[in-house]
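Note to self: keep these together.
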Amino acid sequence: MLLACLVHLERRRTGEPTGLALVFQRIHIFGVQLVLLLTVAVFFILVPTIRHVIDTVFFHGTVQCEGSFSCQPANPFWLLLTLFWVVGSWIFYSWTARQDRSLATRWIFHGLGLAAGMAFLLRGCSLAIVALLHLGYGDPLPLSEVLGYQGSYDFFSPLLLGMLLIGIYAWSLNWSVRQGLMRLEVLRLTILAIVGAVMAGAFWWGLGRLLDNTLKILFSNGGVGVNHQAWFESWALVLSGVCYVLVDWYIRKVSKRDGELVAGPCRGYVLTLIGAGVLTGAIGLAVALYTGVTALLGSAVSDWQLAAQGGLSAFLVGVVLVGIYLPTALRHHLFKESETPQEETTATVIPEQSVDPALALGHEEPQETTIEAILDDLLAARLSRDQAASRLYELMHVDA
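Structure:
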């Protein structure tokens, strides 16, 4: 951290880098920031730091000391200090990147970070909904399933991590507006398009799992049923991403109102969902065909019915996605370039001919009496084509 601060101060003292130095500076700032982001995710998700802090502060270490008579819960001060150190380093690099004027680089790294934050937030919401559904079903989850070392239903950590990522990266992207690199309306709709695309992933994934569960009930095989846990997880995904419907409606409304101003975010949003639908449908169809054909040929894979039902569910979800957004893309010509360059026409450059002042005033010079002299005057631009023709007609005693 100290070395990074010294490098930042030296960079400010020496002025703005250019050329290759600027490239290495961006690799350093955004690359280290990405590594620190992965480290923060590990401390939040894989390492039970947040779970131990919550257990120690609110439950006096009940989960950590479960089944032990001589147990000392983890010290929350040192856990938080370690967490703040990693998070602070990542925030510092996000702060140093705010002055970078490369809009494309910033959107690639910070846009992906924003999408990751939204994914963590939806994951936390989904786990929380599952816990609530278990509670409503009369089968509450034990505290160890939420705050234990494994923490299969720990929704605190992804919720906190998602809110932190969304807040920091939205703040970082807002600097592009302060620097005049883009308009505020475009920034807001771009962030909303990223959020809506991630929500759409959770929503349609949940619908696909609901369809898969329905197919398993309709075409049961070998006593393989669907328990309430599968339904809880499917409905949790749908409910966590259901706000995608409102986001989609708002994006369509803004697209009709502002038109070309927000064409980029709307185009990226629609094409992303079309691509997701095509990919999901293609994979689902391939799985369904492979398992079905191999079963017909007598070399079926194990549990081929379950795999075929899952592939069919994915295929149907992909078809619906493409069916919803493909007409929109065709209607608004989103598969074409956003700005069609005008065709360049090759113009023949005609040199400007100097006009004799006497001719311009209507005073003609004495006419030449030979064909050669008239042609010389025509080539020298002292006569126009019509004047030369008239004199030739007069010389040849032919009526014009």
